[in-house]
Amino acid sequence: MLDNLKLKFSELFGQQSQNTFFAPGRVNLIGEHIDYNGGLVMPCAVTFGTYLLTAPNKEGIFRFHSTNFDDVLEIPLQDDYARTGKEWYNYPLGVIHNFLVGGKNVHGLDLLFYGDLPIGAGLSSSASVEVVMAYALNTLFNAGYSKLDLVKITKKVENEFIGVNSGIMDQFAVTFGEKNKALKLDCETLDYEAVECDLADHLLAIINTNKPRKLAESKYNERVSECQEALQALQSVLKIGNLCEIHTDTFNKNKDLIKNPIVQNRAKHVVEENDRVIDAAKALAAHKLDEFGVLMYASHESLKTLYEVSGVELDTIVDFCKTYKGVTGARMTGAGFGGCAIALVKKNQFEDFSKSVIDYYAAKIGYAPSVYSSEIGTGVVEL
Questions:
Q1: 292 — phi, psi (to 5°)?
Q2: Catalytic site residue 170?
Q3: Which has the closest alpha carbon to 271: 230, 329, 332, 318?
Q4: Which family does the similarity line name (predicted)?
Q5: Is 299 annotated for ligand binding?
Q6: What pTM, to 2 d.p., does this model score?
């Protein structure tokens, strides 16, 4: 595959690539819609992601091409940039912008991107592109940023350049992921623990609903706003800086401060989901996959009924998983509104599971999902 990309690079740009970088996508095992509420999440890197081949050019311009799209775009070096439209290249362009306004010396590059992550499926294809670009610039131009700096820069790209009010989890997992480990990340302090994630005789199945959703166009920002409303109501009595500073018992004693029942449901999910992450980390550390599976199902139910970010497509997949004996747990992952579900599936039953869930889903929804198997992979690297 890399040989083909190098050949493509030569054909496009008339020179050989000099460096190759890779950043994975991520799935969140549990702890959904928590990252912007200051709580605990448990993502891991997957083995799919974004490849970036680079070489400097003498023209002092940025040439962007992605094998996933058709166009080659040429953008001259400027002091700064602004987002134009909704094209894919805004993600790497936003990274270049942040390096420039940060005073870093950046020169013209030929850039070839290839991603084997399904776009818009909730596996953080955007964070993968942002992080691989930032890591490449940092390496090629000796910018001196730490990995944590790169996480913060790429989150800023997502929030300010792209305009999505997402938290820091995606960029963090893509950057700091470790093989066969989940990251129990505190989104408020950015302290994290790499939790041993021995799936034993299971693998991670990723089931793409094939119903794409674009975060900036979804109700994602609405959920962020609802959580802020809930926090303000609780702050009239409780001295807290975010929803995840309290546990379920404290929330239940004070939930009536939140007068809007829908907003109260949003907060209830956030607080209980944060507690589930704590329990999930203990279950994984103790190699109790069955307990972890129960928590996965509980997480999905909460996202469906309290947070209302699931949908018939995701629910169809999880409902099937509950009936399939080779599945230990399943839930939607990512922001929802379509995208992907994940399931812990017995390795020796994956082929049958894949065929069965495709048939079941297609009969209910009218078109087929895509099913992938993944191991837990590593974070961004130069190859």
A1: -65, -40
A2: yes
A3: 230
A4: Belongs to the GHMP kinase family. GalK subfamily.
A5: no
A6: 0.86
